[in-house]
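Comment thread on ticket #2218

A.B. wrote:
> Attaching the input chain for the structure job we discussed in standup.
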Amino acid sequence: MANHELMKLTANQVKNGGFDKAILAIGSCEAHGPHIAEGCDTIVSYELSKRVADKVDGLLVLPPMTVGYSGHYDTFPFTLTLGYETTVQVIYDIVASVLRNGINKIFLMNGHDGNIAPIEIASRRIKEDYPDARIACLGQWWVTAGDLLPKGTFEVWNGQGHAGEGETSIAYYLFPQWCEPELAAGVVPDHLPEHVEIKWDFSELTNTAATGDPTKATAEKGEKMTNALVDCVAKAIQELDSRNWDYTSTNAATKF
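C.D. wrote:
> Ran it. Output below, let me know if you need it in another format.
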């Protein structure tokens, strides 16, 4: 299988590799309960990115961002975090570097909730400064997986939660060697109101650094999640490719 990882390619291989788009995994390093590797978000987003590149022609896999914004997890060991503006700037700088190298179609594979806001800001700034840039994003794979898989796949909270049933399942599938299943313990928050968001610090929701129920996790569920997510993103990129990433509307009623 062809190598798509920029870190493992020579300059000659990159130049002659036929790459016309790139994918950036954006992760973090923080406690995921006591049972999953701290780099879970980075590992998952990068592994998904590599699998998507196996299915999509011309997709260059950029080195992952291994630290993002994780200040809201800082209570738990061993959290590393960038500041918000630093996270925004790092994303911006990487994307701008790709653009200067002649690739203007970029997919952002996010692995961490704290990166959602910085990705939005960085992407808007890129579009202002580089109008020809085309940016697509999977912002919350942990939500998308629950939407893609059949009802009943997950037993608790539709698999959601930080290091909950879903995330733990995909960890058990992708990197079981870096997990300690016997330590899995989570809390399902039961005092959050419907339809509005509470801007919490994670320690206000759980004392285990996990929400949801990781004890229900299995590698089999993780495999289903991985396959569904990879197929979803690959299909989206292929559809964009079929139109040269032209997503302008064709049914506008009037023009200004």
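A.B. wrote:
> Thanks. Noting for the ticket: The first helix runs from residue 11 to 15.
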